[in-house]
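May I ask for a single protein's sequence together with how it folds?
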Amino acid sequence: MKKVFYAGFGSLLVTSALNVNAAQQQQKNTKKPNIVFFLVDDFGYSGLSKTGSDFHETPNIDALFENGVYFNNGYSACTVCSPSRAAILTGRYPARLNLTDWIAGQKRPYAKLSVPNWNMKMEHERITLPEALKENGYSTAFIGKWHLMPIEQPELVDQHYPTDHGFDINIGGREWGQPKGRGKYFYPWDMPNVKGGKKGDYLTDRLTDYAVDYIDKHKSDANPFMLYFSYYTVHTPIQAKPEYVRKYKAKLAANPKKYQHRRPEYAAMVQSLDESVGRVVQELKDAGVYDNTIIVFTADNGPYWHEYAGGLRGLKGTSFEGGTREPFVIAGPGIKKGVVESTPAIGMDFYPTLLDLAGIKLKKSEHIDGVSLKPLLLANNDHKPTAIKKRSLYWHYPHYHRTLPYGAVRNGDWRLVEYFEDGKVMLFNLKNDPFETLDYSKAYPEKTVEMLKELQEWRKSVKAQLPTENPNFDKKRQFKKYYGIRKKK
């Protein structure tokens, strides 16, 4: 009887396990996909070993490229951070939002042009990506850098935390564009809801602890989740774990003439970033939700140093490709693996793409400047790349930074830049000259006029703000920079 009993009991356990597994599989098949969005700060086109760095070590991020689609013509929406971040979350061009510079911007009171009175916040009537997901059953979490708070309007600051724009929780997000706590990238943190730790603990690691914990807590939920991991790294100050810095100093010393990238502290920060991505992906696997999770990896603007732009002209805050060309990867269920896609894509595309992949329709009342990249992503579909209509991409930066105020348009292989101070125009052909060393504007005057007209008409269509003549222009003091809160008149 015991044998029969145990055999029957065993069969019941097997049957029960099969039923549980079947139920879990059915839930996995019907549940909308989870979303993990990795957004890196000030990260250049060639900051990864996969995209050209001969010094950095990024095996975990490289693995995302092998498991998804890499857009090698992927762009941020702006050459600086706050506008790019708002574009991702709203699906709108910064020019349409009138949120066109980092908050609170750089002041040039004696420059030739006065910058417009631009918007330093996302308006609440616009439905953000996390809000659209929440309306469809998602739980949402924000971790890291926010930098979308109207600090020059202190009475409104408390209305513009991540939790005021669709996120259920906020870990570390406030008005900062970089860590400004007592320890900067090390403990003590002095950040919203970032608790615990001891001397020597590293910020990227601590934020990753929260990301891993969030996934663990929500792995069994009936509804999906969105984890928006917005890193402070690799923004200045350049601070890394001492043991990693020693490692890269030794690596450089062993082959002093071998490497193009030669900054041990920066390479050490990148290694911590890569380990963070690896930990999050591993937790997705351990939690049993990896196969039903869309993963995005990108950055907000170009690098702080030119050598990390992959040979492209310019860097963060400039009008050239190096200021906006970014790593741009999307991986997940049903998405092609290890594919390089050359169709140009831009930060606003994430909003409609993620909703499309999740089976969520855009509201007709929402004007979205991005397009869904889904036809270019899915491994098994009847769509062809022509399903994405050929379109132009635009940039609008009526501010001073490492550049003069400018506008730009990319149409096919052509890219035109217009400077607002003097109307100077430069025309580049990215196919023949990807590093923008040759100005074709005089050689192709008809193309120049055509693209300039297109750019100007686009600005009118989105009601882009333009700088105006500055009555206080002072030629001797025009390049003097001022930071901080603008005094009220």
Observations:
- Residues 225 and 283 are 14 Å apart (CA to CA).
